[in-house]
Amino acid sequence: MSPRLLTAAIGAYPHTADLPGSDAVRLDRVAVSPINMAFAPMVRERRFDVSEMAIATFLMAKAAGIPITLLPVVMAARYQEGALVCPQDSPIRGPADLKGKRVGVRAYSQTTGMWLRGVLADSHGVPPDSIAWTTFEDAHVPTFRDPPFVTRAAPGSDIATMLRGGALDAAIFGFEVPAGMRTVFPDPAQAGRDFQARYGFKPVNHLVVVKSELARDAAVMDGLRQVFAASLTPREALAPAIALAGRFCAEQGLVAQPLTPEEVWS
Fold this sequence. Notes:
Blueprint: E1 4-9, E2 25-29, H1 39-45, E3 50-54, H2 55-63, E4 68-77, E5 84-87, E6 102-105, H3 111-124, E7 132-135, E8 150-152, H4 159-165, E9 170-172, E10 181-183, H5 188-199, E11 204-211, H6 212-215, H7 218-227, H8 235-251, H9 261-265
Parallel strand pairs: 1-2, 1-3, 6-7, 6-9, 7-8
Antiparallel strand pairs: 3-11, 4-11, 5-9, 5-10
Helix pairs in contact: 2-8, 3-8
């Protein structure tokens, strides 16, 4: 019997360059770059059989009842502090100075923003609603609406231009700091070590999801375990990250209440 062909939107990483097939399944990989562009189609249309997905997006989708199932397959994990930047000449000297400031982020639901807001609140006394957030995109989950302390930038606005022009005091980017900017955390590497010491893990950004009806097929799941064997992580090892992400999402208004690891894997 031929392997079942599953459409898959998975990012290009060294550990995904040559994903094997199995007797049960084979992936028909769909090119999506950057990979976060696959998240909304997967949530809103379930366009793919298998998809990489940010943890905040998944938790919001799960809370909204969207029939996708999480797999314990880590695609990307990283410390986040290097993504929060401000102009070189800014008076901001550390994360505690962000209280009352204007901070830009691509979307309020972005996973990097979720982790950083949690750190700001837990470790630096800066709760989410003490910052005037500016967003540029909707959440991947279509029913979500930004909290009242979040403002949408005017159409056509650019986050880097607004930061350089003084309309924003700081912003969350990827990990390439734009010219003329510096990190808000004076020592991002030490801040990452502080996160590890406090919580015991490196933040998970992206995992893998599958359509829920496929998750009920034992042969398909066995095949996917073989395909993603190099990135499989024991569920118990992921539990602290999922529990903290669930708490942060609830505290920030992304979901109504935290999802426990048991609810996440159900």
